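Table 4 source record.
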Amino acid sequence: MGKAGHVLRQVLEEFEVSQYSLAAALDIERNSVYRWANEKSDPSGETIVEIVRALKTLNPPAAKAFVERYLLNEIS
């Protein structure tokens, strides 16, 4: 699976954001977040944008870390 799940798991753990709280902010079932964070499935590009938005509401530094690790490292 892709890099998004790996980075998401790191950020959730590091910034102590629960999968449940992210799922609630996204208005989806926690099982989806679990599958992404455990690299069982990949979020779509549109969903990655929604993850960033949700993380901004829950923990802005976590959102910044997710973007930096997922997006910015890809273009450097």
